[in-house]
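Subject: Sanity check before I submit

Could someone independently write out the structure tokens for this chain? I want to compare against mine line by line before I put it in a report. The sequence has 242 residues.
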Amino acid sequence: MEALNGKIADRSAHVCVIGLGYVGLPLAVAFAAAGYQVTGIDTNIDRTAEINDGQSPIQDVNSDELRQVVEAGRLIATADFGVLQDVDTVSICVPTPLRKTKDPDISYIIAVTGEIRRYLHRHQLIVLESTTYPGTTDEVIQPILEASGLKLGQEVGLAFSPERIDPGNNAYHLTNTPKIIGGVTPTCAQTAKLLYEQIIETVVTVSSCRAAEMVKLLENTFRAVNIGLVNEVALMCDRLNL
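---
Independent answer below. Compare away.
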């Protein structure tokens, strides 16, 4: 992974972000603004066309900022997964909606990982950012990638780094929100840490992918409990005419 570390450090690495929604697009723009060549992949052709035209489809990315990196040639959006053969790092930012049974639907993650495996090559880093349950990275993604014959931690890096975007928050955004990273090996974690340190002020590594996945689960649970508490107190205050 040393060759990749060098490309990340001198910003010659070709960065790819899969999923150009409220998580992926800010990430892609941040890497492009930092000087990296960035390719964003999204299956929504209308969205890729809009981005390539310099028009932001989400509130947290200013169209002027987007247009600047697009016109500079540092950010290109496409629906073609074939570009994966030419990139050095891949950040997966696809949705994981809940099923009717309240189980996470990881079909998008599995589908994208299958595409990555088709074009996987040595000195490449794969980072999952999509919210999911602890164990997804090493139980689901790792076996698919290892089927390529490449050795994780030596020839290919794999890590989990939960997205922490809070849409509409003007105080905390991508660059000043601490980033958590767990790798399938310490080497994977350090390479992923090096990558995200280029655009994020504070990057914290944890012991494993599962630990990083648990961090996100705890954060979401903490937020849900507090929202529920405030809603209950609001009802009580309403009855008390407060």
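---
OP: Matches mine. For the report I'm noting this point. The chain is about 40% helix and 15% strand.
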